[in-house]
């Protein structure tokens, strides 16, 4: 079990690093989006001698690539931080141990098979695109295989994080480790909603 916990810590460290680093791409995406909107708004009013890129499909596609990259590569970190969508109002009715068992069951029988299937299906999908040098059908569009690679990479990271979460839930249930993520107790929004309900009842 010590080896599995070591693996879990390694996976967590990798996904935490990647999740924090790719978050900066949101700023890049916003800047690209703002630039594209401004250039499109100014249109023909820009002097032709200015050596700046004009609005194009490549800039639009770059926005999609950046947002997609953040969503895919940070999803594993989101799972690790327990920030994924869950019905906290319902789960808060259960004991901590029951929630741990539910998470373990869902990770093993739903999350892990699903993400593993996506990895298995996305590899040939990416490979075909890479070998053929697939390019967007839009005029001045970008090459497509980097975006498809992000799908593959994102689900590989999510698969690894699913394994890490399974190891941690099992270890917590066995009493081998303390709860590694305080946020697993309950989301702050759920706590606030419950407190409001209790005040209304009083």
Automatic annotation (TrEMBL):
Residues 61-169 form the Tripartite ATP-independent periplasmic transporters DctQ component domain. Keywords: Cell inner membrane, Cell membrane, Membrane, Transmembrane, Transmembrane helix, Transport. Coiled coil: none annotated. One of its GO terms (molecular function) is transmembrane transporter activity. It holds the Pfam family DctQ. Its main location: membrane. The chain crosses the membrane at residues 21-42, 62-80, 101-123, 143-164. GO terms for cellular component: plasma membrane. It comes from the Bacteria. InterPro entries: DctQ, TRAP_DctQ. The keyword Transport applies. It is found in: Cell inner membrane. Part of the tripartite ATP-independent periplasmic (TRAP) transport system. The complex comprises the extracytoplasmic solute receptor protein and the two transmembrane proteins. Belongs to the TRAP transporter small permease family. This is TRAP transporter small permease protein. It comes from Nitratireductor aquibiodomus RA22.
């Amino acid at each position: 079990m010590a080896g599995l916990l070591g693996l879990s810590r390694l996976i967590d460290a990798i996904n935490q690093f990647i999740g924090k680093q790719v978050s900066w791409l949101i700023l890049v995406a916003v800047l690209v989006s703002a630039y594209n909107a401004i250039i499109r708004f100014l249109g023909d009013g820009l002097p032709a001698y200015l050596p700046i890129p004009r609005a194009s499909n490549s800039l639009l596609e770059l926005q999609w690539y950046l947002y997609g990259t953040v969503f895919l590569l940070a999803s594993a970190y989101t799972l690790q931080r327990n920030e994924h969508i869950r019905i906290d109002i319902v789960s808060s009715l259960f004991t901590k141990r029951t929630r741990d068992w539910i998470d373990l069951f869902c990770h093993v029988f739903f999350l892990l098979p699903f993400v593993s299937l996506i990895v298995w299906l996305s590899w040939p999908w990416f490979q075909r695109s890479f070998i053929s040098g697939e390019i967007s059908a839009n005029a001045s569009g970008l090459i497509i295989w980097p975006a498809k690679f992000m799908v593959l990479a994102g689900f590989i990271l999510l698969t690894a994080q699913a394994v890490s979460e399974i190891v941690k839930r099992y270890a917590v249930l066995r009493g081998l480790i303390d709860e590694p993520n305080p946020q697993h107790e309950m989301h702050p929004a759920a706590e606030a909603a419950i407190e409001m309900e209790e005040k209304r009842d009083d």
